[in-house]
Design brief:
The complex is a heterodimer of chains A (about 240) and B (about 150). With about 240 residues, chain A is α/β, with parallel strands linked by helices. Chain A is built from 7 helices and 11 strands. In chain A, helix 4 packs across helix 6. Chain B has a 6-stranded antiparallel β-sheet with strand order 1-2-3-9-8-5. Chain B is of the alpha+beta class. The chains are: A alpha/beta (about 240), B alpha+beta (about 150). Chain A: It comes from Artemia franciscana (Brine shrimp).
Amino acid sequence: MSSAVLRVLCLGTLPYNKALILQNFYCEQLVAKEPSALNTLLVLQHPPVYTTGIRSKEYSTDDEFRLKSFGADFCRTNRGGLITFHGPGQLVAYPILNLTCYNKNIRQFVSAIEQSIISVCDELGVLASTSPHTGVWVGNNKICAIGLHRRQNVTTHGLALNCNVDLKWFDHIVPCGILDKGVTSISKELGRNFSVEEGTGLFLSQFSKTMNSPLIIVDEQETKKEVSTILKRAFYEKC
Amino acid sequence: MLAGTSRRVIGSLVKLPQKHFSTASFLLGRKYTDKHEWIDVDGKIGTVGISSYAQNALGDIVYVQLPDVGTTFEQSDECGALESVKAASEVYSPASGSVVDKNSEVEETPSLVNKSCYENGWLFKMELSKPEEIDSLMDEEAYSKYLKSQEE
């Protein structure tokens, strides 16, 4: 079984809609089998935003207005999963991969994501597990949400691991549409502040192991240049 | 010469409109795409679904997004999505045409696609605009071989 190399771009904090532009760019390249296309992992944080998946009709414009009134953005997407929140203190990762390179179907890929997060928690002494509800749980509380889209076997969207995010943001929604369950974060479980920066290294290491995929971490300058080029092009194409 | 005359007589007695002999309109059974959709053609109407391999690979399907009646597609256009394990996977139209019916049963009970992907779990029906496209799809035998090659 061959394992494909994964290019990692650490993006800092980026608005959700700009990250979507990047995701779509890398996805298009892989779908079109461009010679320069590479499996890419985007790692970042978002300013506060609530997002919904393809079951978007379950959330009305009233819901949208109400959630925006709390100071967050609101975005309807084509991923799986119901409503969730992204914000500062949450490690968000978007693996834009051609699953054929990894010889995994979508179920196996979701399982691999769950396993890599469980391994991160395990390293920290946090007892995490899977459940009939996709994602990673500490008891009845979700510590990491997962929601994906697959187009011609290329994935977009991904996971969101709560590091030291303010969990009060989740009070305004039924996270992932699951009643009687809560949310937690690594900071809450450890009883100390655990930052996204601390989580990133652990996540990259475990994800690389689980996917059997060597990583190429693109340096900061190169990342900035690449992101700027893609976003500028998208802006001018829109005009 | 006689044979030639006989052929001409036969030709004028039995008019055989070419379109009725298009292979697409005969009962060929299901044809498959390389993205694991199937289409079953009866006359100009094709019923579309996903294969057993596909429903198994997806896992428990919890939501089905189907195209509206009247939507037109070219072959291989994205025409819908199926959600399982918090992943929305695109469905592609096996042929060109316009949607004439969608299966409201699977919209209400998405698990039908897992339980009965070839019968009650059909997704939508379309009127084919280019029936000859069906010839390029895989029959059962070719699809089986294709699945085996994917496993290697």
